[in-house]
Amino acid sequence: MKITEITIRQLKMKLKAPFTTSFGTFHDRDFLVLEAKDESGIIGWGESVAFHSPWYNEETLQTNWHMLEDFLIPLLLNKEIQHPDEVNELFKPIRKNNMAKSTIEGAIWDIYAQQTKQTLAAALGGKKDKIEVGISIGIQNSIDDLVMLVDGYVREGYKRMKIKIKPGWDVEVMRTLRETFPDTAFMADANSAYNLEDAATLKQLDAFHLTMIEQPLASDDIIDHATLQKLIDTPICLDESIHSLEDARKAVELGSTKIINIKIGRVGGLTEAKKIHDYCEANNIPVWCGGMLESGIGRAHNVALTTLSNFILPGDTAGSNRYWEKDIIDPEVIVKDGYIEVPQQPGIGYEINRETIESFTVAKKTYQ
Ligand code: OSB
Ligand code: MG
After folding, report:
1. 336 is catalytic
2. How many Cβ atoms sit within 10 Å of the Cβ of residue 245?
3. CA–CA gap between residue 126 and residue 305 (Å, rounded)
4. What is the pLDDT of residue 23?
5. Residue of 37, 159, 164, 274 marked active site
6. What was the pLDDT predicted at 24?
7. Which residues of the chain have pLDDT under 50?
8. Looking at ligand 1, which atom is closest to the CA of residue 240?
């Protein structure tokens, strides 16, 4: 295949409800989508999960646009490639900027799956025809508000509740939830809000039988996490700290993580995500697919990845209706009884709604 044309769009979509983590609140989602066309006219779609500002990692939608325009697109345009795994190799001279790389790589995987007349899930080696999903719930104004929200999501059938925590919104919150919902699977995500001096507080969470605690310590740490894991029973799951197979291997060998949250953008694309998945499977480390408040395009890639066999814990890929009044794909991603059915059309398997995508577009540029 040869990519002959690429269009980048900047979109702005309003979240149905604000989403608050330990580092701030989102009201909108500003992000890039990328449309790539090959010489036969097949179109593939990718989404950049970078945010408007660099709080989750150092990338932003503007740095992604810069990397794509000035480095990544020139490396790829009009080059003959046989398989999407080659994109990873092609981008090796460019350090990091994983979310930018992943944006393009995802579109190439979509094209490759369509060319070979299979679903993206099948192209990746996935076998499931439905995936199990949980939901990530932001910090609320009161514990009562949170209990009401959780109750709704339990009724909707979500398979596990991920609760965002931060100092002061942790032990009492999780205690109340455990008492109110004795049989529900809960986990907590701190987005790096703690340090080792907080070990005693984090130890108190052991009493609530959480399936895991996600990224309690610094986003660039795998040393203190290993120390913390020796002090607490709740399994640690790393998110922000894992950018590659090498990071995963080192964290697992050090005992810093017992579970890994794989985000396609954070690790630079589906090829690297699959490598991490395979390494974890061989080393008995369960994985699950994280979320970045994606539109339907990113969501479709997450659904496909989650069909791989070692995605044995419910992920964060909730239904479109949890985020948006109207998503940019048809049909939207639907969760029923805690499952998403894997679409069976070739490629990402959902149609892009051109009219809707145009209505959210604030900037657009085509490269040939
Ligand atoms: O840490 O997993 C995270 C959202 C934005 C940035 C980071 C994270 C999250 C979520 C929400 O937890 C996942 C989702 O619903 O897409
Ligand atoms: Mg997280």
Report:
1. no
2. 18
3. 7
4. 83
5. 164
6. 85
7. none
8. 1
